[in-house]
Amino acid sequence: MEGDCDLSKEDSRKVIVVILMGAPGSGKTTFCNDVMSTALRPWVRICQDSIANGKAGTKSQCLKSAAEALKHGKSVFIDRCNLDREQRVEFVKLGGPQVDVHAVVLDLPAKLCISRSVKRTGHEGNLQGGKAAAVVNRMLQKKELPKLSEGYSRITFCQNETDVLDAVNTYRLLGPSDNLSSGCFGQKSTDSKVQVGIMKFLKKVDVPNNVASNGNSLQDSVNRKQNTEKDSSSAESEKINTCIRNTVEKVTEGSNKMEGSFGGGDSWNDIPTLAFPSISTADFQFSHEKASDIIVEQVEEFLNKGENVRLVLVDLTHGSHMLSLVGAKAAKKNIDSRKFFTVVGDITKIYTERGLRCNVIANAANWRLRPGGGGVNAAIFSAAGEALEIATKEQGGTLAPGKSVAIPLPPSSPLYKREGVTHVIHVLGPNMNPQRPNCLRNDYIKGCNVLREAYSSLFKSFASIVREQNTLKESSKNFGPGSSDSHKNLIEQFPNTDQKIKREGCYESERNKKSKALPFEQIVMDDECGHSGDTSAMSQPNENMSMSSVGDVHDGKVQQKNEKIDRDVKKSWGSWAQALYHIAMHPEQHKDNLLEILDDVVVLYDLYPKAKRHLLVLARRNGLDRLADVQKEHLQLLRTMHSVGLKWAEKFLVDDASLIFRLGYHSAPSMRQLHLHVISQDFNSSHLKNKKHWNSFNTAFFRDSVDVIEEIENQGKAILNSDDKLLSMELRCHRCRSAHPNIPRLKAHISNCRVPFPAALLQNGCLVHAPSRPVCEA
Ligand code: AMP
After folding, report:
1. How far is the CA of 606 from the centre of ligand 1 (A)?
2. What is the 194 CA–ligand 1 centroid distance (Å)?
3. pTM for the full model?
4. DSSP label at 549?
């Protein structure tokens, strides 16, 4: 046959010895547990660290136990490092006419293995903590990749977590009579990087000669050798994982495992991925049989629409009944196991613990969309922090059974920062639990309809998030080769979360990072842009959104002139700091989010308002990135910005006469493109979180628009107070100047402080208030 599964009768009851190979921390035990938790054939895991009644034993004890298990028709995992040939030769000998010997190589980056080993606790072999790094490094230097000629009928190389998941699925879904075809699978590249990675990690360890001089040599030779060793079936394709079914599949010759179905060379971890729990089967006691049918049916229907996505059903428990049922049913239906698979783990830690990037996770919510309860709902709300609760509340209301609601996670949420989760979709299924309100009392006709509706709504919500993120991605692609490394890193780090990953939560650290990088960046500005190179006014990456093509300016000539500058400027502003620039240059693409678009300015709400009312007035002028760029020729523009800002402040005052506004610029803005802050002085906002936020609006760092205009008129330049010290000054009330130890205390104070504002602000006309409410009497 041309397919990968060989189901001939005489072979049909073969058992398998899978010899795992990999450094400590490469995930061998997790691999075994994942397979065994929902396997379709019996497996035994043999681990030398625990072979003697839970304690470390000998190799011969392992061999004996393995032989015993095989004799009883059980397939076996040999869970040892087995990194060199000598270590594994005895295990290969377990093979025979009824016993296939496979190798699974967990050839993951050394850095990852080391950091996992260092961090873990309770390891069977007690290899953890500080000593682990050196041990892993030493072991990896002895690594000898397996070859078919050692006696394996099949070798699977896993070089990243997605490969691992594929391999897990392969073995998990292997029924008692199924066999996998022979050959080498999954080997992609040399491991030179791995070795370099170790050296970087350990810093003090010498680079061995063979690595330093020719890091590729070992793997290259293995590659060449193995290519010649590949038999015809293995040469067919690496698509083996699609053929882990109980049926025979034809695989196109030469097709490539990953790119084949996704096109465009996307790697699997770049694919938008939704992790979801089983809805209604835990607390709401829905029948597992029926629920698993519905999941598989809905998944199939959704994937058939051809969306370029992955769906992952997650359950915390090893041996989860739901996962087994769904896995088996999906296999039966031949659903592509690369696009839909199950994972045992905590849905809030899929990336950090399992290396699987899921940019969206679903929550089995309650109708009130409240935290608490138990299970997934409690876990997600707690992992996402207060941010999810607030964002959920902002959406308002409750959720009806069968419905879902997508909540964009604020970047400040730990789930966003740590896991790269950009959205949580709350879903509510039917209730079959009489202890809970609105029980359907066994009405499975209604129940199934509601559950179907719930999954369908969930997948629809996910699809629309994906479309939205793709649009963002597209616009960032236009950004072209000038796009900064940091941006690339971000995309690599959390490809599906796009630029959003660096936003509010990262404000301070990014500001600091950036200032460390100033010398280099300043050179770029000085030499190539002819700017003053005022380091203090350099960009500081901050909250951001999208960025995109540039140079689309109103005036063609200006455009040409600015193209070079623009490229250079992009280098010096972190790409995450370009959102306002993009909005100013392409307001038509952001219409829905803009309050006003004029020839010279656009007005929008600050995405992370630091007060009840906080607007930005952006200058639509290319090359005008910040206050430091402003010269006399921009006076008119500054006046326009001021008067537009004033107009909006006055509008708000009509609705709420208690507000008082201040209009001004940050001396060293974090976002590119000159923007005027129009901010109410209540500072009543959950986005105002730290000293820097406060001080950026309440020290000399904030330059009142009226003063700036005057300075430009008189001196042709605005005064910039961009010393970082201003941002770390003690917290003082902006009215009475009393000092406060932290933001919550300060906020509590300012909510009640009615002392008149400082004279400097009052006299210079820096405050905008309702005519009926003079600020000194506020
Ligand atoms: P600055 O420190 O003066 O550069 O402040 C930049 C402001 O832009 C901050 O108040 C942010 O909250 C705000 N901001 C960041 N990204 C966006 C965005 N995409 N849309 C609107 N406002 C944003």
Report:
1. 6
2. 39
3. 0.42
4. -
